[in-house]
Amino acid sequence: MFWKRLLFSYLFVILLALSFLGLIVFNQINTTMKDQVIYSNEIILENGSKLFGDFVLEMKNLALDIAIHEKLQEYLLRFKEGKMLFQYNYLNDLVYEDQYLNSELSKNYTGIRIYPVKKENIFYYNAMSGSYLHLGKNGENGHVFDAYEKNGGFIMTSLYKAEGNYIILTCLVYDMNNWKEPLAVLELSISANAVSSLLYNIKLEKNISPYIIDDNGRIFLPYLDIKNIEESIIRDYSEKPVETENEIIIKRNVISTHWKLVGLLPEIEIQNKMSGVIRSFIY
Fold first, then answer.
1. Using one digit for the tens of pLDDT, what is the confidence trace for 44-77?
2. Partner of 32 at 20 to 30 A CA spacing, among 23, 61, 78, 201?
3. Cα dihedral sign, 44-45-48-50
4. What is the structure's pLDDT at 186?
5. CA-to-CA distance for 69 and 225, rounded, in angstroms?
6. Residue 83 above 80 pLDDT?
7. Cis previous bond, 116, omega within 30
8. In Å, what is the CA distance from 165 to each residue of 17, 190, 194?
């Protein structure tokens, strides 16, 4: 009887020690696995951010190619000097007639608008009158005036329409013979389809697409997604992961912009990954 009690005591102590040690090891494995899941998804998000940043840089270079187009420069100078243009809507056509520029605009789902500048006033082409009229500042064209007042550099913002979202990239066109003289404001209107195609293979856990957040903290893609992400988290430019009750939020800033990519990792998915480890641990 004594030996049985002693044996059970030894077994109890051994099991207790193993359970305690196992719990420590399990918690360590759990933390390590969670860190690995977060890290692997951060790498995916980093790649997406780089792709998007490179795309924006490519579109900026395209805008510069348009801005120095020889014929466009000639016609903008004519407008600035008050000379007659043979066709008022010919400014856009000049760009589309260039095979390279037309190809680059088409493949990137991009439209253009050119707003000539004369005597510090900005003009726009009015199709009904067939002429250029003075552009009045309002909410829809604020980016045009922002680009003009910035006097150099790019303005990148978003435009939301019923048929889809657009990136609006705006910059000044300068006289190539006098870089202090702005001739026009150039606007590139880039469809969200271009970005969607670019990031098609950037997927997080369970084939979840990352969110693209614009400079105003609004969701640009996925299109029409109404996921409610806490504003303080979106506004924070830090790239440190944030854990909430049901998910882990990871972020990556897009270089040379105020945009960011955001990934939401459901806690349940991480727990599902751990289920196999739990079973093995119990066995």
1. 999 999 999 999 999 999 999 999 999 999 999 9
2. 201
3. negative
4. 96
5. 39
6. no
7. no
8. 60, 9, 11
Residues 39, 62: Cα–Cα separation, whole Å: 35
- Reference 173, options 103, 133, 126, 113; nearest CA is 113
Q: What is the Cα–Cα distance from 128 to 102, expressed in whole angstroms?
A: 25
Q: What is the pLDDT of residues 130-159, one digit of tens each?
A: 778 899 888 788 899 999 998 878 999 998
Tokens 């202090």 identify what position? Answer: 180
Longest dimension (CA), the chain: 116
Supply 221's token pair: 């893609």
Name the DSSP letter for residue 152. Answer: S
Concatenated DSSP letters of 157-221: EEEEETTEEEEEEEEEEEETTEEEEEEEEEEEEEEHHHHHHHTTT---GGGPPPEEE-TTS-EEE
Strands 164-175 and 178-191: antiparallel
Q: Residues, the chain, total?
A: 283
Cβ neighbours of 194 (radius 10 Å): 17
- Hey, what amino acid is at 17? A
Residues 6+ apart with CB under 8 A from 26: 277, 278, 281
Rounded to an integer, what distance in angstroms lies between the CA atom of residue 126 and that of residue 146? Answer: 21
